[in-house]
Amino acid sequence: MGEVGADENIPRFNRVASWHDALINPRFTSPQARNKRAALLLGGTLLVPGSAQVSAGNRRLGRIALTVTVVCWVLLLLVLLSALFWRTPLIFLATNGLTSPVVSICLVALAIGWGLLFLDALRLARPGLLSSKARTVAIVSTIVAMVVTSGGLGYTAHLLNVTRSTVGEIFGGGLPFRPVDGRYNIMLMGADAGADRVGLRPDSMTILSIDAKSGQTVTISLPRNLQNVPFPEDSPMHDVYPDGYNCGDECLLNAVYTDVTENHADVYGDAEDPGAEAMMDAASGALGIDVQGYAMIDMAGFEQLIDAMGGITIDVGGQVPIGGGTNELTGLPNPIDGYIEPGVQHLDGYHALWYARSREGASDYDRQARQRCVQTAMLKQLNPVNVVAKFEEMAAAGTQVVRTDIPQSSIGSFVDLAVQAQDYELVGYAAGPPYYDAMFPTYPDYDLLHADVAEMLANADGSEDAQPAPAGAASTTAQGTDSAGTTLALGGGLGSQALPVTRTETEGTTAPTELSENGTCSVP
């Protein structure tokens, strides 16, 4: 009998040791068994961290790791259940200034611990006893696994910190919003303070009216040239303009912001943005609803947000100039630097901004239709893959683009409603063409507008009787209707719909008019 020490000289009954002995000491096992052992130790660490240590290493360390693993699996299950059935507390944990740092620290600790377990599992695999090929596979597999697991946890912690910082910069504090008459009404304003303009003016004004139960969402566009806007009786501006905002040709809806900021800021006390508060009051008076919050979108930063998304794709209905219009400071026409051509176009931030704001050869209603189309494209094309891949860029752009009075405590509820809203088509409406005659903003009938908005919102309550038409039922170009109350379809592209509104004939509110080709578009 030869010397024991080489595999070929080991008696057969010694080489056929128990698998447990082989895990503890692989020196006297076959090369195939060593490879299998290394794979099990590393694979076990990937699926059940701590299992390698319990089987072949420091059992006390392994038991601690297994306990942490079980706790993490239970927490992950709770997170998944919360994401499916009750997202509000999950979003609160991710965005709250107190809990979010704790979660981030825990994720970093788990990332470090898992990485150390992988390194210990590689040590226990005895790379020196493996064949050259198996050794390379084990080392590379360990590195890849550490990048995926520890790196993934670390990156998640980083994104959580970015989210918390972004939310803290954009959203305010305070108690969450409560719905009024079963709806949340939020005013979106596109603010433009270009070099050729006097002051900041919110030229794009849209109310998002969201059903508090179903998430069914209606967008109501307000023309910037709406005149004689009444302020609700409980608004501080009602004392300043008791008969409505009727101080002359300059007193259009979009001038309220500048007027209040420069001349009446004190009436809103310590409000951070009295101009925005006055705009919400004006929208409430115009539509007969209670507007509870606002989000101001800086059109200059809007370009960065679109670029962060990777651009948007729109089917352009008519040629849209880049530039043009009149310089308000000099009274001279601005040059035209090019055109956005008709057809399906993938627009970067620069071209998307001009598509939304271009005035040359277009009415305000054309611009509003194009802006609604851009909003639809952004919502449709903002998919989870884009969010993850471009999250930091979008977050950085968001802090420059958006300011709002929506409290952090309302974010969870709104995210829940946004998910539910995917079951419905976006309903579009406007206080002007194509729903009303082009003279309506100049000679508005607010009683009629209040009645129409109330009926339209009642039809969009998310009930079974108000289910949206099948996809494609609404036209992708703007079209009018007669006073009998036929459905109005607005050119907002796929994913938008208009509900029927019964309207009586009154002076200045005849059958809705067509938009020009400059104001038609769709989202492929």
TrEMBL record:
The protein depicted here goes by the name: LytR family transcriptional regulator
Q: Which UniProt keywords apply?
A: Membrane, Transmembrane, Transmembrane helix
Annotated segments matching region Disordered: 461-524
As for family, the record states: Belongs to the LytR/CpsA/Psr (LCP) family.
Polar residues bias: where?
515-524
* UniProt keyword Mitochondrion, yes or no: no
- The source organism is Kocuria soli
- Locate the Cell envelope-related transcriptional attenuator domain: which residues? 201-382
Q: Does the keyword Membrane apply?
A: yes
In terms of InterPro entries, this protein maps to: LytR/CpsA/Psr_CW_biosynth (IPR050922), LytR_CpsA_psr (IPR004474)
Give TM segment ranges.
64-86, 98-122, 134-155
Q: Which NCBIfam families match?
A: lytR_cpsA_psr (TIGR00350)
Which Gene3D superfamilies does its entry note? LCP protein (3.40.630.190)
